[in-house]
Amino acid sequence: AAADHTPALVIGSGYGAAVTALRLGEAGIPTLVLEMGRLWDTPGPDGKVFCSTRAPDHRSMWFRTRTEAPLAQFLWLDVVNKDISPYPGVLDRVRFDGMSVYVGRGVGGGSLVNGGMAVTPQRAYFSEMLPTVDAGAMYDRYFPLARRMLGVNTVDPAWFESTEWYRFSRISRKHAANAGLRTVFVPNVYDFPYMQREAAGQAVRSALAGEVIYGNNHGKRSLDRTYLAAALGTGNVTVDTLHRARALRAQPDGTYVVTADRIDTAGRVVATREICCTRLFLGAGSLGSTELLLRARESGTLPDLSEHIGTGWGANGNVMTARANHLWDTVGAHQATMPVMGIDDWSNTANPVFAEIAPLPMGFEHWISLYLAITRNPERGTLTYHAGTDTMRLDWTPEQSKVSGDAARKLFDRINLRNATIYRYDLFGGNRPVADDFTYHPLGGCVLGRATDEYGRVRGAPGVYVTDGALVPGSIGVNPFLTITALAERNIERVLAEDYRR
Ligand code: FAD
């Protein structure tokens, strides 16, 4: 059968992919988006699109028989995870030796499952990580553009101070202040006026009903409501779901062919398509885009790719940790799932840490303060492809994670000391006070200026581009999606201006 042909093919539908699809569509270029996950728009038998965090079902995770939540235990008991039936659920945990990577699956990628925190990195650190990118243009133009397009807003400070739903943040702020540490409000894409209506009993609860890592049924401006809705609105963009791109190859005429497996909701391959394209935009995320290019390089279908593909990977220094509060410092049975505050000690050159004050909405008082700390970890791992098993491996050691864990401990040891509090050891498995062996922020693998040129054009494959978190070299010091979005805006603007002229 003749291969399908599309002028532009985008793989994935997360931040980088969504920006790219919109701008291609606006420029009048017919664009096909392939997404391995499903479109999350149809309610299940319970009337909800997404399942709840407290009673997860098949919709929660990507083809699992049991959920694998980041907090595995409570009081050392395996009460958090639940048996489920395999299904293309919205959250995936990709396990490598020594490091697990959480990613979103579905139209909207990580935006479906993430905490919505839209944080602009410190300019000096941005320039240190991406020295060849014009920071002036980023901070004057592309970060503001990304914030506007993503619908970023901030919690009303007066409401924040009075609501029971953010008591957990205020307690952590107090304890940070006792240790001489600064806290900052963090913008988010969750619709805060909606959240206030939830609290007032005037709107269906989502962030106030524990919803986040398995999807939000209301309130969150995920990409399917922002960039991707606008992309479809151009009339030039089509999204094919449950399509997993597997192989890329170049044709003699300079076009590319992508082989994609279409799966059903049981995970069976029901069709294999060959799609020919003039230009190919990889937005499958740090792991997905890197894997496609590694496989193409190692199997010889794109033999001229750079040796840098697979290098420069990092976990953005992620560490999760939890403290046990005194009985009088209640954190509240009611906690909003959208974080709005962080401990900002990034300017402390001896031990830079930015720690998001994370909710733990269990529906009862537990006296736990939870944090997702972002540390400055200079360690980098390498992703490699193994043809025999058709798998990608991550070269990353526990010692490399320990750099992050130690930095987080320095900060929280200080907070514990000043408040006479201790860590919780029962939450992460293995009796540990910190978990530095999983990440929400995979970055790198196709680093800007190394595996690609300065605008994401893949070296050794003219007409192929990387658009997503794979471009960022392993660390950005804050939650990364705003940076990924702004960088994608910058890059596609240049590509449309230069590569599509004539
Ligand atoms: P992704 O968003 O990962 O999108 C990649 C898409 O490609 C996915 O939909 C995937 O299914 C698809 N795909 C992959 N491979 C293939 C293939 N072969 N064929 C077809 N499709 C494919 N960041 C923040 O800034 N703030 C936060 O508050 C925050 N909280 C987070 C909480 C959680 C639980 C998680 C998991 C992440 C969080 N993040 C947060 C991180 C953020 O979501 C990611 O950095 C971001 O989504 C990465 O964007 P991306 O464009 O690189 O790719």
UniProtKB/TrEMBL annotation:
Give one Pfam hit by family name.
GMC_oxred_C
GO MF annotations, alphabetized: cholesterol oxidase activity; flavin adenine dinucleotide binding; steroid Delta-isomerase activity
Query: In what pathway does it function?
Result: Steroid metabolism; cholesterol degradation
Write out the entry's keywords from A to Z: Cholesterol metabolism, FAD, Flavoprotein, Isomerase, Lipid metabolism, Oxidoreductase, Steroid metabolism, Sterol metabolism
One GO biological process this protein is involved in is: cholesterol metabolic process
Cofactor requirements of the protein: FAD
Organism encoding this protein? Streptomyces tirandamycinicus
Taxon lineage: Bacteria, Bacillati, Actinomycetota, Actinomycetes, Kitasatosporales
Its EC number(s) = 1.1.3.6, 5.3.3.1
Q: What name does the UniProt record give this protein?
A: Cholesterol oxidase
Q: Which PROSITE patterns does the annotation name? A: GMC_OXRED_1, TAT
